[in-house]
Amino acid sequence: MKSTQDAHEKNYLLSQRADFAEWMTAKLRSMSAPVVRIHVSGDYYDAEYIQNWQRIISSLRTVTFFSYTRSWQKDYLLPGLMELAAHSNMHMWWSLDKDAHDAPYVSGIRRAYMATDDEDAKVAPSDCDLVFRIDRKTVMKKANTVFVCPPENGIKLPNHITCSKCGFCWSGRQSKWEQALWSTQYDDSEVTDILA
Per-residue pLDDT tens for 59-91? Predict the structure, then answer.
């Protein structure tokens, strides 16, 4: 659609402004947004852009941010993305699919798999935390033991589950692979001692 393409171009040009971080911070403050998803469409394209988001997130400590990215594939962006993910009010997700599935394991960063169809969903890596589905004609609550995004699981409910009702993406849950690592390193008595 031409209007969508125009909107994306406009957003990209806004992100190029020298005062982008200040402008976006003011915009989000004026909206009193409690939760912000960075990029419904688009991604982190350079280190300066990532630094701008770090400044925005640092300025808005009461706002919860979350983001999905495939930019982990670019070595020169990975350090900045890891710094961005370290903010206490930021929930970062590595986006994976059948062609991009070897994302690094980084503490605090969860993993999401984009399935093109049901067969693809069935082979979602079991260490992922969430599966999104492009083709949603069937009901699928879990794909290869991985939680399927509720708005995309195919279940018809009288009160449709939306992102704002679910909140899974910006919850502080530990990643599935970190839970597995934790459980193999410590028995229950050690965990109690560590947490006490």
Answer: 999 999 999 999 999 999 999 999 999 999 999
Q: What's the rounded Cα separation, in Å, for the pair 133 and 149?
A: 8
How many folded domains does the chain comprise?
2
- Percent of the chain past pLDDT 70, that is, above it, reads 91
Q: Which of 94, 113, 143 is the last residue of a domain?
A: 94
**What are the φ and ψ backbone dihedral angles of 98, each rounded to 5 degrees?**
-65, -25
Burial 140-154 (b: 16+ CB within 10 A, else e): beebeebbbbbbbbb
> Does residue 105 share a domain with residue 68?
no
State pTM to two decimals: 0.85
CA distances (Å), 117 to each of 112, 140, 195, in order? 15, 11, 42
